[in-house]
Amino acid sequence: MASNYLDPDVLSKVGRLDLKARYVVEGFIAGMHKSPLKGYSVEFAQHRGYVPGDDLKHLDWKVYAKNGRYCIKQYEAETNLVCTALLDASESMAYVGSQAWGGLSKLEYAKIAVAAMSYLVLSQSDAMAMGVFAEGIDEYVESSTRKIHINRICAELASVKPERKTAMGPVLHTIADRVRRRGVIVLFSDLFSPIDELIDGLQHLRHLGHEVVVLHLLDHDELTFGFDGLVQFDGLEIARKVLCQPRQLKKAYLGELEKFLHQLKAACQGSGVDYHLVDTTKPVDVTLSAYLGARARMARGTGRAPVRA
Amino acid sequence: MTFLAGLVAAFAALGAIPILIHLLNKRRFRTVVWAAMDFLLATLEQNSRRIQMRDLILMTLRTLAVVLFALALARPTIAPGQLNLLGHQGEIAAVVVLDQSLSMGHDSGAGSRFDLGKKRATEVVDQLPKGSAAALVLMDDSPHADIAEPTHDLSLVGEEIARAAVGDGGTDVQESLALAWSIARKAPAVGREIYVVTDLQTVGWPAADEPTWSALLEEIRTAQPECRIYICDVGDEQASNIALDELIAEDELAATEGGGELAVLATVRNHAPTPATGVPVDLLIAPPGGELRKVASTVLDTVDGTRQVRLSARVESGGEHRIEVVAGVDGLGADNRRGLVLDVVDQVKVLIIDGEPSATGKRWDSEGFFLGQALSLVDPRDEASEGADGERPAQIAVDIALPGDVASLADYHAVVLANVGDLSPSLIDALTGFVRVDGKGLFIACGDNVLPDFYNAALLTDAGLMPARLGEVIATPVDAPDSAIGFATTGLVHPIAAFLAGDEAQRFLSGPRFHHRIALETLASDDPALVATGDQVGTVLSFADGAPALVERTVGRGAVLLFASAIDREWSDFPLRPVYLMLMRRAVQRLALGRRGATTVLANEPLVAFLPARDAGQTAMVHDPRAGSRRVPVESAAGGVAKVADGDTRIAGFWRIELPGENGNRWYAVNHPRGESAPERIADDASLRSRQPALDAQWIGRDDDLASTVRSQRVGSEIWGVLITLVAICLGLESWLAQRWSPKGT
Question: Which residues from chain A sit within 8 angstroms of residue B43, using beta carbons?
């Protein structure tokens, strides 16, 4: 089952990269991932003033000896990653463009990407969870660090069919309520949903301390609107038929799309959401490699985030 | 707006093609199942109105281009004043109808009407816009197209107008206008104009309700492109006019014997409302080879209406004599003279074959007695010709013989079968050759000895001599004169009876009463016997009930007359009446001439001469009174004869046909139609509209400025050039807009 989605080529290219969170996340496996929580582990992070009620065992007596002030020692602990992949299985994801990679629909493309990412996460002993949604959460696979967990994820992916409309806002709020432990939430979707609700949902996740990654999947046709002649467009999620000369509408359509993307990017940037636009004509491995490479560069540039108590 | 090629305008319907293509294209699309519907709907919401407007503009431009192109091919025109900015005045196809009838020769002292007409016609040609074409029709009662197709060489038209001469024919406005319209109708020009240059003599115009005339005017009135008719009046008031209406010879065939008198009856008409006084009337005669010379004259003290005058002279020699009578002098001289051609022989010799000789010894009981007496009448005034024996030779010498005693017919000009019951085959053969080959005449009179079945078989079916089939005898009681029938006194057009058409002669014609007659069934003109032989049949006289009384048949070079009753007293009192003398003498004289063809005709009637068949293929020369001449072929005709015919006789006077071989010359008198002398004319526009309400024409008076009048009525200009420019603009605009509005790149 898993082999359907785990292309060896994809995995070989993606697997050479470390999956590093841009922000420190809370984890239960000490490792490469930094916990967002300032605790009392092995690596000193900073001092803070003593507050009554603090455990005295963390009092730094050396500091007291030097300057007579009571300071508590804080440490950064490396923690394991809980990555939750959210797969949009609405009808709009069924679109297959003329130049789509491998002739795959956006949903199929997303399934491969989810599977590859799951494999990668699990292979570095992080935890992986997955949710499939449309108008609501249709399926949810709880997190696990066991490598065998990839089979369950792939099995779920195999059963996913594009149905119903997208209701991104409620779905993200539901996820926010469901995933208590802060981690990385990767959203695979074409985001054809009211942008206000979408942004509201993303901000909710960010508010809870999740690192949110949005992989915005759009087909090349949707990005370029390069149709010729007279075309009747039958809506996938909207039961409307539109007969038009696409060439006449191309400019306006692209303007509309650009406006949406600009609004979305701005909102994501403002909320600290990692947004990536994915053209489904590009191979999945290229897309993931590019994304992970970018994350690595950003992580090196940023270094450790300041520890906040 | 009108179209010169109206049918092509139907191609404007091709303007629907862009619309059809648009609609068909809307049925040919591919379907894409689309995810990003939100963006598409939002785009459409914002742009659909703009796109629809652009599509509409482009489609309108394409449709307009096609429609305008089709309209341009249809050569549209606009009338002046509709849109003068769109071009110069369009070319015109004009047909000038110049009246050359006799009345146009009237000259009041300042030049003839025809001279003024030619001047007007020249003005018409001169004022035509550049690029116009013109044709010329010369109008009379036999109109002909001098230039039958509009020519752009207007100088040629001018030359033809200058060369035209007034004729002596009548006027037929309807025929002339029909001819002009047949020319103008085919002319592909912006405007079609017919100019009728005429003196508007009333007699030449048809009745307003005449169906063919109304139909012609309606066709012209509704024609597209428009055809304007201009009536150019060149007439003037004619205060008085003396005309010679008729000239008839007393005898159809004159003779030098018996006094050699040649008498004519001339009818002089004064067309003025007041009596004319002191009207001189002269008789001129030209013997064979001689010139016309005045031989008698008289002066009519007063002429109020019509007056008949008898003029006579003695002739000394045989042959064709030209006779002319001239009456009065006035502004229209052409109708003051009239001529005729009369054959003169030494003596007309007639053989009467008596079918019922007297059984009582009394001469008047024989069948041929009265006819013999009538024909051989001697002029009691002719004392000069009295011989030593006291006998005076008659103009007509009559021999009477029994059927079995006839030896030879060679010496006679005519033979009369008077109630002959038994005709031997040899006599029938002799009579057939006598008429058909020798060109002599046969008079067949009926009676109780005539057996219709025998005559029908022998003289009609076998010999082909009779003009009618004999039916049963129609008899009324002899003692009931009121039930007997007389001659009809109308329809007297045959030369034998025409002289009885006058009021004075009517009482003579109505006198005879017939209580026995044989019904005649005249052969139809398409009877196979007539078609095969080329013979012609005509009724000379009828009875009052319409049945034929005297019927003529041309037979080969000769002629046959069939009389339905007897020529003695047995079936009628006809022989006792004065009209018997008149009719029988003229009948026999005409028979003696054979089938000669009319020697006295009206202008535009054909000159015909019959010749022996051997002369067919040769050429005759026709000489007109104005010293012009032309060659005419001698052609074979049915009935074993050859024929010369020339119909172009618009000039009155004496014509001569120089016949080939030994046939010598043949003279003809061509006279004017009497109606042309009538001075009544349509004098103004109001009268024209009143008389001819269906005629949609513009009146141009003698003093009107023709050019300015016509210019104000012109059809207008062709605007196809403007339309083609608009087509180019539409296409250019469409291309530019389509390029501008199309999305860049793919």
Answer: 249, 252-253, 255-256
Q: Chain B, 6-25: which have a CB under 8 Å from a chain A CB?
A: 25
How many Å apart are CA B497 and CA B483, to the nearest integer?
Answer: 24
Interchain contact, B44 vs A249, CB within 8 Å: yes
Q: Residue B332 pLDDT more than 80?
A: yes
Write the CB contacts of B583 (distance below 8 Å, at least 6 apart in sequence). B496, B497, B500, B541, B550
Q: Which two tokens stand for residue B240?
A: 């008085």
Residue B510 neighbours by CB distance under 10 Å: 16
Contact B499, B310 (CB under 8 A): no
- The answer to whether B740 contacts chain A (CB < 8 Å) is no
- Whether the per-residue pLDDT at B86 is higher than 70: the answer is no
Pick from A88, A108, A232 the residue to mutate for testing the B interface (most B CBs within 10 Å): A232
> What is the mean pLDDT of the segment spanning B32-59?
84
Contact B29 A237 (CB under 8 A): no
Same structural domain, B527 and B491: yes
**B386, part of any domain:** no
* pLDDT computed for residue A155 by the predictor: 84
Which residue range(s) make up the domain with B552?
348-381+391-593
**Would you state the pLDDT for residue A299?**
58
- Pair (B367, B467) in one structural domain: yes
Asked whether the CA dihedral B659, B664, B667, B668 is positive or negative, the reply is: negative
Are the beta carbons of A34 and A13 closer than 8 angstroms?
no
Which 3 state secondary structure label does DSSP give B630?
Answer: strand
- CA A273-A279-A282 angle, 5° bins: 120
Count up the domains in chain B and report the number.
5
Query: What are the pLDDT digits (tens) for A197-220?
Result: 888 888 888 888 888 888 899 998
CA-CA distance, A133 to A175, in Å (whole number)?
A: 10
- Tell me: pLDDT of B547 over 90: yes
Length of chain B, in residues: 746
Closest CA to A7 of A214, A279, A287: A287
Q: What is the pTM of this model?
A: 0.56
> Which residues on chain A are in Cβ contact (under 8 Å) with B741?
248
Across the interface, do A242 and B37 touch by the CB < 8 Å criterion? Answer: yes
To the nearest whole number, what is the mean pLDDT of chain B? 86
SS3 B556: coil
Q: Is residue B452 part of a domain?
A: yes
Per residue in A116-126, pLDDT (tens digit) is 888 888 877 78
Which one has a higher pLDDT value, A27 or B171?
Answer: B171
pLDDT for residue B98 is more than 80? yes
CA distance A132 to chain B (A): 19
Q: Which two tokens stand for residue B714?
A: 């012109």
Using a CB–CB cutoff of 8 Å, tell me whether B40 touches chain A: yes
In a domain, B139, yes or no: yes
Cα→Cα distances A190→A87, A94, A100, A108, A295, Å: 10, 10, 14, 12, 21
Provide the pLDDT confidence category of residue B431 given band limits of 50, 70 and 90.
very high
Any domain includes B746 = no
The mean-pLDDT minimum among A161-165, B106-110, B393-397, B616-620 falls in: B393-397
- CB A248 to CB B30 under 8 A? no
- Give the end of a domain, one of B649, B678, B707: B678
Question: Are both B652 and B699 inside the same structural domain?
Answer: no
Same structural domain for residues B563 and B519? Answer: yes
Condensed to tens digits (0 to 9), the pLDDT of residues B705-746 reads 888 888 777 656 667 888 889 999 999 998 888 888 765 544
Do the interacting molecules here have an ipTM over 0.85?
Answer: no
CATH number, domain of B488, equals 3.40.50.880
Cβ contact (<8 Å) for B31 and A235?
Answer: no
Name the token pair of B743. 């999305």
pLDDT at B467 over 80: yes
Q: Which of B22, B29, B43 should be substituted to probe chain A, the one whose Cβ sees the most A Cβ atoms within 10 Å?
A: B43
